[in-house]
Amino acid sequence: MRPIQILGKEIKSFIKENGELFEDKLHTEAVNVSSKISDILNQVNIDLLKNARTLIYYVVDQKEDELVAFAKQEGIALAEHALTLELKLEWVQAIRRTLWHFVCILDEEKNITNDRTEFYEIAKTINDNIDKFLNNFFLNYTSYKDTMFLKQREMVQHLPVPIIPVSESVSVLPLSGTVDSYRIQIIEEKVLINIADSKIHTLVMDLSGIAMM
């Protein structure tokens, strides 16, 4: 049996038997994230501690297909709930350091590797798989964000610009929802065309329905 396979069994067994020790080390390594773990679980139902175990198991078992699928799931979930890339990056690097911490302990206690070549093989396997997770996570995170951004832009382009006449020369433009620079540009284009057609002298913009600007 290869050293990485032996290590995989030992790591999984160690984490199952020493769950609190494993989680305490993660908290220590990810100071900025640890205070948000409970809030993230309660608000968006993402269990970072459970996901840390899942990532480590896929890494040490060399389950590349499952690892890539898990990265896609995580990327979409974080993008969907507007969690930051900084948070995820810190968390994954904390998982990497925590895993290596226990790898070194187990290797010293049980002599899993006999020489440097075997240790370097384990190092390459672990780091390559974690990097593969990160690469696929970022690809799916940004892809989901880009898709949502394009959908929002398309929706903005088709939003009505309801100019309501009050008199022959005065009209009101009520706006609602979120207004950003892109939507302002669309509104400006449509309003100028409408003003030119209807020969409005005064346009009153009603911003009382704006949720965010």
From TrEMBL:
<feature type="domain" description="STAS">
    <location>
        <begin position="160"/>
        <end position="213"/>
    </location>
</feature>
<dbReference type="InterPro" id="IPR051932">
    <property type="entry name" value="Bact_StressResp_Reg"/>
</dbReference>
<keyword id="KW-0597">Phosphoprotein</keyword>
<protein>
    <recommendedName>
        <fullName>STAS domain-containing protein</fullName>
    </recommendedName>
</protein>
<dbReference type="InterPro" id="IPR036513">
    <property type="entry name" value="STAS_dom_sf"/>
</dbReference>
<dbReference type="InterPro" id="IPR002645">
    <property type="entry name" value="STAS_dom"/>
</dbReference>
